[in-house]
Design a protein that fits this description.
316 residues; alpha/beta; 5-stranded parallel sheet; two-stranded antiparallel sheet; 9 helices; elongated
Length: 316
């Protein structure tokens, strides 16, 4: 290939395989080319290409059934499963269950000869178990990863969708070349663009399975002679069950409203019983006025008596 690389340098740059993070570990310092103005570390493309080539040679020494890819993230599992379809290796997607490489009593126990780790930080348990069991590992390492228990580290952007697809596509091509299935890079299929579509289709299938969706039926094929009577009958009969459902829902709503109305009536009756009767207050008020009236009469009668006494005195 051009410039001694597996693919053109522009393709590497296009996928962003060289873009790292803002963190740098001691183990990955030797792979860093420079630091961008925004603080992101940039990986050396020459070393990225060399490590992918070396990993491809290592993979060729093992049978596909002996290789296991551990991919816990969404983008890595998409690319890994597309790689598995081409190569025939096994993929452990999602969360890695502890004991999958060490506990023989487990039903999902696996004893691989080679393990490919997509994220050493998120898949630390798998890395530790490979170190305990002496299983050789190939790790896709970003600038913020440590390479402990990783035998062959590939410096790369292990979080990008396109960069992961490019890495696994190159590994599949190197595997095909090393096994003798392909005589030249031009004969290898699928292309990188086709590999991306395969990974996208796998992701769509997984999403449909999670949401419980099934592929819809294909378009209706008319019978010979253009007679669509059977299809027309199904379409006319279709609204009938929906009408029955509407009637059932209306009846259920009416039945649900009845106990609510009865409760409301009871509450109104209780409120009316608690209210004081206005008639009793009206009856009490005039009684108090009548009690006060005789006092005014007595006060008016007193001066009348006094006038009478004065008149008798004058007559005498």
């Amino acid at each position: 290939m051009a410039d001694g690389m597996l693919i053109k340098q522009e393709k590497y740059l296009e996928t962003g395989i060289h873009i790292g993070t803002k963190l740098r570990t001691i183990d990955m310092a030797r792979f860093i080319y420079r630091t961008r103005n925004d603080g992101l570390y940039v990986l050396d493309l020459r070393q990225v290409d060399e490590k992918i080539r070396l990993a491809g040679k290592v993979i060729c020494k093992f049978e596909p059934a002996e290789i296991v890819v551990v991919a816990s993230r969404t983008y890595s599992s998409m690319a890994a499963k597309a790689f598995a379809q081409i190569s025939g290796c096994k993929v452990i997607g999602g969360r890695f269950v502890p004991g999958a490489f060490t506990n023989v009593a487990r039903s999902d126990f696996v004893e691989p000869k080679l393990v490919i780790i997509c994220d050493p930080k998120g898949e630390r348990q798998a890395v530790v178990e490979c170190g305990k069991m002496g299983i050789p590992t190939i790790g896709l390492c970003d600038t913020d990863n440590f390479t402990m228990f990783i035998d062959w580290a590939i410096p790369c952007n292990n979080k990008g969708r396109r960069s992961l697809s490019l890495i696994f596509w190159l590994l599949a091509r190197e595997m095909a070349m090393g096994s003798g299935k392909v005589s030249s890079y031009d004969d290898f299929t699928p292309t990188f663009e086709e590999f991306e579509t395969i990974a996208g289709a796998i992701a769509d299938e997984e999403m449909a399975q999670k949401h419980g969706k099934k592929p819809g039926p294909g378009p209706a094929v008319p019978s010979a002679g253009g007679d669509d009577s059977s299809g027309g009958e199904k379409e006319e009969d279709a609204p009938e069950p929906s009408e029955e459902k509407e009637d059932a829902t209306k009846n259920s709503e009416d039945e649900g409203k009845k106990p609510k109305k009865a409760k409301a009536k009871k509450a109104v009756k209780k409120a009316e019983e608690k209210k004081p009767e206005p008639k009793k207050e009206d009856e009490k008020k005039p009684a108090k006025q009548d009690e006060k009236k005789p006092e005014t009469k007595k006060a008016a009668e007193k001066p009348v008596k006094e006038e009478g006494t004065d008149a008798t005195k004058e007559e005498k």
